[in-house]
Each structure stands twice: as C-alpha cells, then as structure tokens.
Amino acid sequence: MTPATTFVGSPVSRVDGPAKVTGAAVYAADFDIPHLAHASIVQARVPAGRIAAIDTRAAEAAPGVLAVMTHETTRRLPWHPRDPRPGVDPKAGERLHVLQDDVVRYDGQPVALVVAQSEEQARAAADLVRVDYAPTAARTRFDVAYARAPSEATAKAGRPGDTSRGDPEGAFAQAPVRVDVPFVQPREQHAAIEPHATIAAWDEDGRLTLWDKSQWVDNVRTEIAHVFGLAEDRIRVISPFVGGAFGSGLRTWPHVTLAALAAERVGRPVRLALTRRQLFTNTGFRPHTESRVRLGAFPDGRLTAILHEATGQTSTYEEYAETTLTPARQLYACPNVATRYRLLDMNVNTPSPMRGPGAATGELFLETAMDELAHALGMNPLELRRANLAKTDPDSGKPWSSNALAACWDQAAARFGWADRPRTDEARRAGRERIGSGMASAFYPAHRAKARARVTLYANGGAMIQAATSDMGPGTYTALSQVAADALGLPLEQVRVEIGDSALPPAPAHGGSITMATLGNAVANACAALRETLGADGEGDLTPALRRSGRDSAAAEGASSPGKEAQEYESAAFGAVFAEVRVDPELGTVRVARLVGGYDVGRVVNPKLARSQCIGGMVQGIGMALSEEAVFDRHCGRVMNANLSDYLVPVCADVGALEAFFVESDDRVFNPLGVKGLAEIALCGVAAAIVNAVYDATGLRMREVPVTPERIVTAQAARGR
Ligand code: MOS
Does residue 1 carry a pLDDT above 70? Predict the structure, then answer.
C-alpha cells in the first residue's frame, strides 16, 4: 500500500533554513577544532616548467610559521590508483601529485605550503617564499589544430570521439535548407558563495578526520585513503553544509591532500581555506569549448541532418571530457546524425563538471543553431521544435520512461505570450531599446545510483534519517524529511535528517541531479523496512507499533539502486525556456526583462524549493549568456580575472522577472518515488534562449558568449561596414 502523501508535493520551507540564516549551520572552515594551525598555498607563476630553486628562509623566519613545505621537504605519498575510477574523475591521465616533484603543469599550481599559527601569518609568509622557474614551452592558446580524439577509456564513458547514424553528410548535402553555425563558450567558474576549505586532524592512532566542503564525502574518504595508502576505515569525512558548489565539490582536489600533509607535518589540526583567487586554479571549471553545428531540414522543418563537432579543453595531466554532444544525438528526432568530439591538452588545471555539465554547453550550441535554422526556413522557432519532437529516444530507439517536452513548449509559450510577441520593427522598439524574444528547449539525462539510508524511530515519536549524501543548496535535508514524514506517518518537525558524514550509510555523488531519485527511494525503502520489522502495515503513525513492541527505539536500513528500467528505457528531464531581452544598440547592453521556464522533472517533492532551484538556474544562465568568462591570457597562461569583481556573476540588477513552473509529470517507471531530478536542467537552454532573443532584438548573430556590450558594439560596427 502506498503511504499517504501529506508532505511530498507540498511547498514546505527549508528545514535547515533557520540554521542557515542564524549562523548555526557549520561549514567546513567554521569547525572550531582545538589547537588549530593554518595553511596557505604558494602558487606557480608560470604555466609550464621546472622549479629551478626555491628559497623558504624568509618564510620560515616569519612570525608564527610552523613549517614550510615544498617538493624537496615533503614525504613521498603512495598515490595508489583507483580502479574503477569514480564517475566524476577523468578516465585517463593521472591526478595532480602535489609537492611530489619539481614540475609545473599550470599557472596557479601549488608549489609550496606554509603552515602557521594564524591564517594571516600563513598568508603573509607564503608571499615570502621565493620560487625561481625554468620555464618550458606551454600550450596556453586554444587552437583546434592541436586537438586530438579522446582515449578509449573516455569514449567508453559516454564521450565518444565519433558517432554516426544514417548518412549525415549525404543528407546534409541534399537538404533543401541548411545552416552551418560556429560557436564559442569560454571557461566558466563555479563561483559558489562558500570557498573550498578543509580541516585535517590526525589522532594518536593515525586516524584522519577531514572537515571538507564536499558533494561526496565517501569519495573524499576513498580518494585520500588511496593517496595516503590508508585503509578507508581510518578516515572520516564530515561535511554537513555546503554553501553552493555546482559541481566544484564532486572531486577531491589537491588542497585536501595538502591539508592532511600539513597536519601530519606540524602534529596539529590544520585548516586550509582557499582564497577566492586560488579557487579558480585549485578546483575545476567548465572547460572552454568550441563548436560547429550543421543542420539540414526539409521546408516543413523536419530535420534530415544534424552534424555537431565540439572541442573542449583539458589539462596536460588528466583527460577531462564532457557529454557536450549528447543533446545532438537525443533531443530531436532525426535519422542522420553525426557527432565528433575532440580534446585539446592545455597548461591549465583539470576542468570538472559544472551545473548541466556537457548538456548546458551542447544545448547552447544546438539551440542557437536551431534558431538560425528556423530563420533560414522562415519558420516560427517554436514550430520548428514541435516538428522534431522525439517520441522515443532517437539514439537508442528505446522508449522514454516519460517525456512531457511538448507540454513544456506549449505551456511555457502560453505563459510567456509567445504568440503575441512583438514581431514588427516598430513593436520591437521601446525608447532607445530594442525588444527581442527567443526560446530554447532544455534536456538533461536522468540517472540514479546505489545508496543506503538508515531510519531510527524513537518511542517519543521522533525519527532520525541518516545517509552520507550532501545538500549543496537544493534542499536534500528538507526533501528527505518530507519523504520520511510521509512514510512514517509523522509530522515533519518530528523528523531529523543527518547527512554529510562518511560514517553514515553510503551514498553516491550529490551531483548529476541524481540525489532524490537515489536517496529519496532509499529513505522510503528504509521506512518501509521499519514498518515491516514492527509488524505494522499500511500507513499512519508508526510510533504506536514501536511502543507496543516495548522498545525505546527501532532502526532499519533501506537501499535503492537502478533496476531493469535503466536498460529498457531512456530517462531525462525536459524543459522549455523563453526569454525577453531589451538591447540598447548604442551602449551594447542587454537586459533580460523576463524568463519563463516550464519543466518536466518527474514528481516535484517540494514546489517551493524546486522553483528556487529553477530560478537559480535562470540567474546562472543569465551569467552564462551575458557576463561569465574566466579570461585566460594566452601569453602568460593565466586566468586574469580570478576574483568576483572581474569574473561577473549576475547581481540582482541584472535579473528581470523570472517564472518557473512544472508541467504535470510523475515518472514511476524511472523509480518508485517518480522524481527525475532537476538541478542541471535548470541551467540548460537558458543562455541559448537569451542569445536567440538578442538576435530577435538586433538582427545580430552572436556566436560567442558572454554577449558583452563590447561584442554587441563590435558586431554592429562589422555589420555597418
Ligand atoms: Mo552537478 S555539475 O553534478 O554538481
């Protein structure tokens, strides 16, 4: 019998909200560990070369300094390889071995570490470390001529070099209407509010505790166990709150190893908090990616050919690859499709997933090209999408477990007023501004993984849910509370959720939008198991059954993992985004006046938090379209704007009216809870809709984001010539 759903589906407020706004929520850098010392990283100042000499004398003599660690004075670690590698790690290459040799692989690489009594002393002394470099040739310019095919390991992980179905080149050559669209998306940074930080503490028995900003505490534990050659049960990783991450917390970055090394060296707990500048090169980023989309269509809009090529950057030591070309293969019905993916090794730190990894980039390319095709056809861009709805997954031929994309298009268009958008030049003018409207589809594959959760019910009517998952902001605490409250028949405030600790039942990465489809079902199963243990069936408050058993408390665990539906069906979240922009042609400024997004994400556990996620994705999409770019100087190989006053994320004044809503959707084929996941989809399509709206307003085809005032003005001047 399915339990009543009092809380699942209700717009309850964040259960951790009061803790967050009162400061009671403790983030990685905030833990008050006695006898804490502080570490500060010294970063390489060349993109490639060797350390010729390193002079630490002035730093060692500075006030409060406990140790200065370099490759010459740091012990060699075993760096055991991991097999299989975690899903979030590159499939080829080798992680950065910090302070193990004299090789500089990118500007910003840690080359020394200063440990001191206070953070200020550590930072001041870090500035005194003198490093002389013997530079070598570096690849710091993005040049597709040097790109290469991905390795077999990467191809097997869903990032193949070349794919083809049908006769793409032939169909394109014969297509009555064709477009050929190049596009550039620059390096982007996660830019979360909370910087990454790690506190490392060893006990007398050689056990290590890490308080770390992480989206995956189990992965940090396993990674550090392999790096240090320790048994996993010697390490505990604690990360109860994460102040935004967007993917930067999926991997275990080198500073975690540095913190543990430093704590070992000085025999005290050590805190290593990255500065905002250091975040740009000591955690990942969305890689610079260049694309070419060729589309061929019949006059009625039906696609006959999609050819999508993309080249992404990776580091010289690891092969990070994205699923940039998945949308080209899966989003629209088309018999002739070819994709070609290439990688360019550069002297940069390794990129990493950033919200909507692969898909958000691929859909920026594909959906702007679809807009160009619509204009080449003389067709309404929305009608072009409708003419190409994929009723089954066009790549595998499998049925969708659910697909309400058509409803997203229809309902979002209606709410936006697409049919009545300004169409004439006069209607598009508002004073000196030009009004433009644009749209795009959104698509993100849905997955789930293996997880366990524990429930403990107490005779006083309280319950505890425990799992090693995280909450980087989407509302895991709240959503798991809702699932448990329903399954146990308890008021929401009687349920406590404990997460973010590797001592709890294992969970996969809090990423890829899989958390609710994975943990939500594990929690429901744990509660069902407890109900069975207590001999209670049906629904309603489980506490009386516990009291009848005479016990003070009872606990059960539940698991969840993908079933045969994962083989038989394709699952994905879908959406449609509509944008209205105001462009000042003289100043080149673009304001996003309105965004409307309709989403098919399966069952919505909490409409309030789900809407927050979606409008958050819209804000990030405004950044992607208009302002965000980590400017990489190709002469010195350095990120030139590694701070939040020059790397521009949207502020309130950049954001117009945002409307996000959910179409009716409930995917019980995909999983019993019926959720598909909605973190990544919220960014997908947003930037494309905005870029398409800029064209509608100005007639300018911008083929590079961010669409800055300089680029608009330059494009206008080029058109005027
Ligand atoms: Mo998301 S890029 O999987 O945190």
Answer: no
